[in-house]
Amino acid sequence: MRDYAALLKECGLKATFQRMNMLESIEKSGHMSIDAIYDEVVKIHPSLSLATVYKNIILMVDNGVLIEVPIEGKKSKYELSKEDHIHLVCTECGEVEDRPHMKETDSVLHTLTHSEHFKLEKQQINLYGVCRKCQMEVAS
Amino acid sequence: MRDYAALLKECGLKATFQRMNMLESIEKSGHMSIDAIYDEVVKIHPSLSLATVYKNIILMVDNGVLIEVPIEGKKSKYELSKEDHIHLVCTECGEVEDRPHMKETDSVLHTLTHSEHFKLEKQQINLYGVCRKCQMEVAS
DNA sequence: ATATGTGCAAAGGGTTTGCAGATAT
DNA sequence: ATATCTGCAAACCCTTTGCACATAT
Q1: Would the pTM count as exceeding 0.90?
Q2: Across chain A, what does the average pLDDT equal?
Q3: What is the pLDDT of residues A26-56, one digit of tens each?
Q4: Residue range B91-119: mean pLDDT, rounded
């Protein structure tokens, strides 16, 4: 659990309770949609407005505090910024899990983009499939 | 240029002019948003409805004729189904280019998911950055 | 003290839906 | 001939915006 207040202030954003609670929920869950964030934080802040959540998501993505994870056929989820990693997206339950980004893959992709004269800024690897838990549930 | 009529009939979809023109536009362009598809096809079919485009996109994605390419901060684009490949997404002009999927990467990802007991269905590698053309324009 | 942020309500835009007429098979 | 598809218009979100009040610094 990080120092959310410091994280926000570094970007010139005020450390409001709304924002800190949003970050805490997101970090705890890992990856959340905007609705899920609102549902979670409104429990603590009954006066929270969905508009505030939208505004803050945009601000925090623009400032690099959050990362958007676009997902096929669904709404984007958001996660705290961290070093490159791979997403395992379960097509059954919708859960997203992180896995360490692998050096072999990384170097291959850098070589590819370098030879293309493509100025690589960010990579996003999403693997879609059925997670262990959902496989077991189907079996039972 | 494929046989769009056959492609559609294989899925049990009727080969209408609207659908075939959509597929032709998408294949020609490579990757298109829904709006772009509508703008292109309505030139040929002035009576085309945006609702028809939406309905057909959903149908063709569900039937595996099209693939959705979700993109950070933007609306999804759609491409014809083809074997796995990498997307280079230009953050300046928004263009998406395909690159062959690399065997090294592929085997690493399969190893990873296998060891996780994650039943891999589909992989999606998006590399965001500035394409060659946009780099040159900034320079000039 | 003041620039920012929040909440509300309204506006805006994208997407979906229902239905009657048209079309592919 | 008939199941499917299209186009239209309305409905339905989700998301954004403007503004007055509240809050962090």
Answers
A1: yes
A2: 95
A3: 999 999 999 999 999 999 999 999 999 999 9
A4: 93
Domains of chain B, earliest start first: 1-81 (1.10.10.10), 83-140 (3.30.1490.190)
pLDDT band at A139 (very low <50, low <70, confident <90, very high): low
CB A130 within 8 Å of CB A91: yes
A52, exposed or middle or buried, with CB in 10 Å at 0-12, 13-18, 19+?
middle
Which residues of A, range 26-85, sit inside 8 Å of B by Cβ? 61, 68, 70-73, 76
Chain C nucleotides close to protein (CB under 7 A) are: 4-10, 14-18, 23-25
Instruction: Say which DSSP state B115 is in.
Output: H
Nearest Cα neighbor of B89 from B102, B76, B101, B80 is: B76
If phi over 0 gives left and psi between -120 and 50 gives alpha, with beta otherwise, what is residue B123?
Answer: beta
Start-to-end Cα distance in chain A: 36
Q: What is the 8-class DSSP label of residue A32?
A: B
Confirm if B74 and B58 have CB atoms less than 8 A apart.
Answer: no
Q: Measuring from the CA of residue B75 to each C1', which nucleotide is nearest?
A: C14
The pLDDT, as a whole number, for residue A104 is 87
